[in-house]
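Field log, afternoon session.

UNIT: design team B
ACTIVITY: writing a sequence onto a fixed backbone
BACKBONE:
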C-alpha cells in the first residue's frame, strides 16, 4: 500500500483533498470505510484526544488495521488536535500514521519548540505531522444556536505561518481562514477567506489543512482546494447524521434492543455524508 505522504503529495499536485473523518466508535468506522470502498477513495480516520481516549489508541489502530486488511484500501489514522508532545508520542508508538499538534493557543515560539520535538520523533517512524497556526476558537462537540462570528485577530498571520513552517518542518499546516468547528444552526456557512488562503499557501509552500469542514459551501471547498487545501476534516456532519438516524430508529421501534439491528441506519447515514464529502473533495477513484 502506498504511504499517506504519497497520497498527500498526490492530492496537493493534482488539486483534490483527502478527507479526515472523525469517529469514536466502530459503527462510524464502518460507515466511513464503506464510503471509501464505494468511491475508491483514500481516507484518513481521525480521533481527537477525547475520541481517542474513549476508543483507545491501540483499539483505533486495530480498527484501521482490520479495515485495511479486509478492503485493501489506503485507510490512515490521525491523532487530531493533540495538545502535548507526550500524547502524540503515545499515538505514534501505538501505530498512528499521522499526528496533529495543536499549539495554536501557545505563543508562536513555544508552538515551534514543541512542534519540532514532535517532528523529530515522528520522522524516525515515517509518521506525518500537521501543525497549526491561527485559531478557529471553537470545539467540535457543539452545534451553534446563533450566528458564529469569526474574530479577525485569530486568522492565521502570514509571517507567523511562514516562520512556523520554516522552523518546525511539519508536513501540513492547519490554518484559520474563516472556518470553525461545528455547524452554525442559523444556517450561515463559514465564509472562507480564499484570497488570504492563497497568500498563506504561496508563502508556506506546503499543503494546507482545512478544519471545521462541516457546513462549508461546496463552492468554497472547490476554490479552497484550488488554492492549496489538500486535507479537509469533517466531524460534526457525520455525528449529526449518525445520531439523528439513531434517534429516529429507536423512536420508531421502541421495543428494539438489538444494536446490530438498530445501528444499520446510522451506519448508512454516516456513509452517505462521507460519500457526499468525498465527491466534493474530488478524492473519488484516487486509490
Ligand atoms: P467539523 O466538526 O466542523 O466538521 O470539524 C471537524 C474538524 O475540524 C476536526 O479536526
Amino acid at each position: 500500500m502506498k504511504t499517506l505522504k504519497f497520497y498527500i503529495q498526490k492530492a496537493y499536485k493534482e488539486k483534490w483533498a483527502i478527507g479526515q473523518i472523525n469517529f469514536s466508535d466502530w459503527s462510524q468506522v464502518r460507515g466511513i470505510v464503506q464510503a471509501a470502498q464505494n468511491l475508491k477513495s483514500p481516507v484518513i480516520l481521525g480521533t481527537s484526544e477525547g475520541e481517542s481516549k474513549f476508543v483507545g489508541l491501540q483499539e483505533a489502530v486495530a480498527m484501521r488495521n482490520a479495515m485495511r486488511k479486509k478492503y485493501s484500501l489506503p485507510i490512515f489514522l490521525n491523532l487530531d488536535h493533540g495538545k502535548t508532545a507526550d500524547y502524540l508520542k503515545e499515538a505514534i508508538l501505538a501505530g498512528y500514521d499521522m499526528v496533529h499538534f495543536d499549539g495554536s493557543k501557545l505563543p508562536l515560539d513555544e508552538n515551534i519548540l514543541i512542534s519540532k520535538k514532535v517532528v523529530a520523533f515522528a520522522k524516525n517512524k515515517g509518521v506525518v505531522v500537521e501543525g497549526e497556526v491561527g485559531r478557529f476558537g471553537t470545539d467540535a462537540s457543539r452545534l451553534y444556536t446563533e450566528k458564529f462570528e469569526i474574530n479577525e485577530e485569530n486568522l492565521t498571520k502570514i509571517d507567523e505561518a511562514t516562520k512556523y513552517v520554516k522552523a518546525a518542518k511539519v508536513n501540513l499546516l492547519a490554518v484559520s481562514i474563516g472556518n470553525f468547528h461545528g455547524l452554525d444552526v442559523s444556517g450561515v456557512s463559514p465564509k472562507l477567506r480564499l484570497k488570504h488562503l492563497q497568500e498563506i499557501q504561496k508563502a508556506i509552500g506546503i499543503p494546507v489543512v482545512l478544519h471545521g469542514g462541516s457546513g462549508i459551501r461546496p463552492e468554497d471547498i472547490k476554490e479552497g482546494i484550488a488554492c492549496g487545501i489538500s486535507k479537509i476534516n469533517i466531524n460534526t456532519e457525520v455525528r449529526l447524521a449518525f445520531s439523528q438516524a439513531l434517534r429516529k430508529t429507536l423512536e420508531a421501534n421502541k421495543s428494539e434492543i438489538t444494536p446490530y439491528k438498530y445501528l444499520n441506519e446510522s451506519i448508512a447515514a454516516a456513509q452517505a455524508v462521507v460519500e457526499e464529502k468525498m465527491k466534493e473533495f474530488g478524492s473519488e477513484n484516487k486509490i
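LOG NOTE: The pocket of 1,3-dihydroxyacetonephosphate is lined by residues 22, 80-81, 140, 181-182, 211-214, 233-237 (CB under 6 Å).
NEXT ACTIVITY: expression trials, pending approval
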